[in-house]
């Protein structure tokens, strides 16, 4: 099998070689005998825990105790969580379009007439009246949305394996392969699992060190929605498909009165080498084999958010036909080579010590510096595995979900979480993985334009804090959350930031209508505050923190059927900061494309009237336009710090007058919190150039809000947003580029005194290789992908070489070093 140990580094663009050996030289695939070449490496060599790279291999000395400790594999569309158990193994399966319901709309026609009254209630200090009227009139219907659901479980039953020795379980981030190995008596058993993007199957390879020693039963189990379904509408059926496999057919649940029209199919086929195979009832039985390959294909009838007319049967049949007669090593090589081409673009090295080679769950207890590199690489691995061109975006749990009723429905939550999933896409050299997010934004403008018209009487498009596979856009859950009108605006800002990394003019032209539509909505929606001086959003909310002040009382909310403090307000700081960026980004896009319009001039005039950041009477940056208190002063969200990160409204350099207020917020909220908030705090402290504090937060995250396999938790529920946010925070500690120059090591922790970061991307269209020793830069290589002007912050100590010759540079008054580049040109910074 493919080795767990790290493959030797290869030049960019080259393919890894595979050292694979099969115990039996005859490979039987769908009844066809194929000769396999003998490979040089003995597949039963034990994992050498002192030789692998601890920045790219996760390993454990015991099976996963529960789903949140299982190891993920994925190809963007198909996902699996591998437990690595002996005796009874569970491999939990997902297909990205397996959602409840079907195409539907939550738009309520003709309710915009209630908006002025709601706004009046808020301005007059009657937030509960505004909340209740918003709930009766402006909420979408249905109030809730659909759910991402589990597909199936592959169960493997092994007799006589209750007690084992020499146990190892691992995930090699470079190859994308999860594995387990253990010994029973004198036989070593090994399983490896990966999800192939080229062949669109999940492959499970089982081997034994002695001929004829491999026997097991396989069962494909569907999942029921016990809380929100009935036996007439939510069903699955499993059938044998002859002697070589099992088949599962199913249908999504009726939920919220919406017909469950999604159909899905999963099929398992087995390819034994030696031994016998048969199907009895719903079991596939393998006896006395030398090795077995299991291939799992799955698909639904989903075409797009408005059409479920595809043929899932044909899709699965086509996948299995593609791999029919294909040797296992060819399937493995294609899968790993595809994954490698994404993963190997970036390498991060940080100091190692003896703890770096311990099992990953042990490393978390007392983190070594190199564990930050493993977390960074794991985040990139997760994005590669859950978001590829042509797939759906990564949701709250990426593509991995075991529940039919998961926490927060495992949707796309856009008051922080969905955006955070993609914070590291551009800098992590994974621009292609951002494409599903961009496509979702385009699709949201469909119902988003209808909501703008019917709910707000406005032009353009608007989107709130949640959506699902069907791209609904109206307010949902209740007014506490649904009054977040800037979800679409935040997405637009992220779309524009993608352009800043790529400098792709064709892409900028493509997204300009989305930015323009969002700006158009807010030009209609913004109103003057009671002073008549500023423009504010109304209604508004600061996710998800309730204000404390006149009119804010505990009350019964008939929409949710619960008692609440309302969050409804006007002009939350987050809203204003997001719109400051949105209008500025739109104006910059117009300028870059040589466009000048009356619409742009309106946007500029409105931007100048947006309420500025303000320091409150308690010394913190205000969370709302009004100087209100907080019901939860240690709240998990940092909504009013959006302008520092990921936005670009507040700056330690450009707006120092706000920095004490920002720090006061960070101190007040503390270094703990939910998983997603920890990654955000790391990035915020990094923007304040405090790497040691960011590193302190990182360590608290590892010990309190991080699962054994480095997925983040939000309380007790797994989410991937914190995983991705941590990687973004690590990047901000090592390189920043949001203020027009590349800042090298702006927030380097003392513990990371030596290291290297190769392949990282920065704004302006540049890719960097950098190395540092004793906290000082010792090597910087720059690849200019777009041929733009390059600026290096604090650049006086450097000269610039191209092809070994010094080129002309300019030292600016702010200390930055500036030089022109040509597209695809390579440059080196050398100390003076």
TrEMBL record:
InterPro entries, alphabetized: 6-hairpin_glycosidase_sf (IPR008928), AFCA-like_C (IPR049053), Alpha-L-fucosidase (IPR016518), GH95_cat (IPR054363), GH95_N_dom (IPR027414), Glyco_hydro_b (IPR013780)
Glycosyl hydrolase family 95 catalytic domain boundaries: 328-734
Keyword Transmembrane: yes
Keyword set includes Transmembrane: yes
Cross-referenced Pfam families: Glyco_hyd_65N_2, Glyco_hydro_95_C, Glyco_hydro_95_cat
One Gene Ontology term from the biological process aspect of the record: carbohydrate metabolic process
Residue ranges crossing the lipid bilayer per the database entry: 20-39
Single GO molecular function: alpha-L-fucosidase activity
SUPFAM superfamilies: Six-hairpin glycosidases
Keyword annotations from UniProtKB, A to Z: Membrane, Transmembrane, Transmembrane helix
Domain of life of the organism encoding this protein: Bacteria
Domain Alpha fucosidase A-like C-terminal: 736-829
Domain Glycosyl hydrolase family 95 N-terminal: residue ranges: 58-305
Name of this protein: Uncharacterized protein
């Amino acid at each position: 099998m493919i080795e767990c140990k790290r493959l030797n580094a290869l030049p960019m663009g080259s393919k890894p070689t595979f050292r694979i050996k099969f115990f039996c030289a005859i490979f039987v695939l769908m009844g066809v005998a194929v000769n396999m070449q003998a490979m040089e490496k003995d597949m039963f060599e034990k994992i050498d825990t002192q030789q692998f790279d601890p920045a790219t291999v996760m390993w454990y000395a015991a099976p996963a105790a529960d789903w949140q400790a299982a190891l993920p594999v994925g190809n963007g569309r198909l996902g699996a969580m591998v437990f690595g158990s002996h005796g009874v193994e569970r491999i939990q399966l997902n297909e990205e379009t397996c959602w409840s319901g079907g195409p539907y709309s939550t738009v309520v026609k003709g309710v915009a007439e209630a908006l002025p009254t709601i706004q009046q209630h808020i301005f007059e200090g009657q937030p509960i009246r505004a909340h209740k009227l918003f709930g009766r009139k402006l909420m979408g219907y249905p109030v809730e949305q659909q759910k991402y659901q589990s597909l199936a479980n592959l169960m493997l039953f092994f007799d006589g394996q209750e007690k084992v020795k020499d146990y190892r379980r691992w995930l090699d981030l470079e190859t994308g392969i999860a594995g387990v190995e253990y010994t029973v008596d004198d036989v070593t058993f090994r399983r490896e699992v990966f999800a192939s993007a080229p062949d669109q199957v999940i492959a499970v390879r089982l081997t034994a060190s002695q001929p004829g020693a491999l026997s097991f039963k396989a069962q494909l189990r569907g999942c029921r929605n016990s809380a929100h379904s009935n036996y007439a509408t939510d069903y699955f059926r499993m059938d044998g498909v002859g002697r070589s496999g099992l088949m599962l057919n199913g249908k999504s649940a009726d939920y919220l009165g919406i017909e469950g029209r999604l159909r899905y199919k999963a099929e398992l086929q087995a390819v034994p080498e030696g031994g016998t195979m048969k199907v009895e009832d719903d079991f596939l039985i393998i006896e006395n084999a030398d090795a077995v390959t299991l291939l799992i294909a799955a698909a639904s009838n989903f075409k797009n958010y408005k059409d479920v007319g595809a043929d899932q049967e044909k899709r699965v049949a086509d996948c299995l036909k593609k791999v029919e007669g294909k040797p296992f090593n060819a399937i493995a090589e294609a899968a790993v080579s595809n994954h490698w081409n994404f993963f190997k673009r970036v390498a991060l090295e940080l100091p190692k010590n003896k703890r770096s080679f311990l099992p990953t769950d042990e490393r978390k207890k007392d983190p070594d510096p190199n564990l930050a590199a493993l977390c960074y690489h794991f985040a990139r691995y997760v994005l590669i595995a859950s978001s590829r061109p042509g797939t759906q975006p990564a949701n709250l749990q990426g593509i991995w979900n075991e529940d039919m009723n998961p926490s927060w429905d495992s949707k796309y939550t856009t008051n922080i979480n969905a955006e955070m999933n993609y914070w590291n896409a551009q800098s992590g050299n994974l621009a292609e993985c951002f494409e599903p997010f961009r496509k979702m934004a385009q699709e949201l403008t469909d119902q988003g334009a209808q909501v703008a018209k019917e709910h707000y009487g406005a032009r353009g498009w608007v989107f709130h804090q949640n959506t699902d596979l069907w791209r609904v856009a109206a307010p949902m859950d209740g007014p506490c959350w649904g009054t977040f009108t800037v979800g679409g605006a935040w997405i637009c800002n992220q779309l524009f930031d993608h352009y800043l990394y790529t400098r792709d003019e064709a892409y900028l032209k493509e997204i300009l209508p989305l930015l323009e539509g969002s700006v158009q909505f807010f030009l209609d929606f913004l109103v003057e505050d009671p002073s008549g001086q500023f423009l504010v959003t109304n209604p508004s909310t600061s996710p998800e923190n309730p204000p404390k002040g006149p009119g804010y009382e505990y009350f019964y909310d008939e929409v949710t059927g619960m008692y609440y403090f309302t969050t409804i307000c006007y002009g939350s700081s987050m809203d204003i900061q997001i719109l400051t960026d949105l209008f500025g980004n739109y104006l910059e896009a117009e300028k870059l494309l040589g466009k000048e319009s009356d619409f742009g001039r309106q946007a500029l005039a409105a931007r100048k009237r947006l309420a500025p950041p303000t320091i409150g009477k308690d010394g913190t940056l205000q969370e709302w336009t009004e100087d209100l208190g907080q019901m939860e002063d240690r709240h998990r969200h940092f909504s009013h710090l959006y302008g520092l990160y990921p936005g670009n409204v507040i700056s330690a350099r450009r707006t120092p007058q706000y920095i004490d207020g920002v720090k006061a917020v960070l101190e007040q909220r503390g270094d703990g919190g939910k998983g997603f908030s920890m990654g955000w705090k790391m990035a915020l402290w990094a923007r304040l150039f405090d790497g040691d504090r960011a590193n302190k937060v990182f360590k608290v995250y590892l010990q309190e809000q991080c699962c054994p396999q480095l997925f983040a938790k939000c309380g007790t529920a797994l989410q991937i947003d914190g995983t991705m946010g941590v990687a973004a925070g690590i990047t901000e500690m090592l390189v920043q580029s949001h203020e027009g120059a590349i800042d090298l090591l702006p927030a380097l922790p003392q513990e990371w005194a030596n290291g290297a970061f190769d392949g990282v991307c920065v704004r302006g269209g540049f890719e960097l290789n950098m190395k540092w020793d004793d906290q000082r830069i010792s090597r910087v290589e720059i690849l200019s992908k777009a041929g733009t002007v390059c600026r290096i912050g604090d650049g006086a100590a450097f000269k610039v070489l191209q092809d070994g010759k010094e080129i002309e540079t300019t030292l600016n008054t702010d200390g930055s070093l500036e030089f022109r580049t040509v597209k695809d040109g390579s440059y080196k910074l050398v100390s003076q």
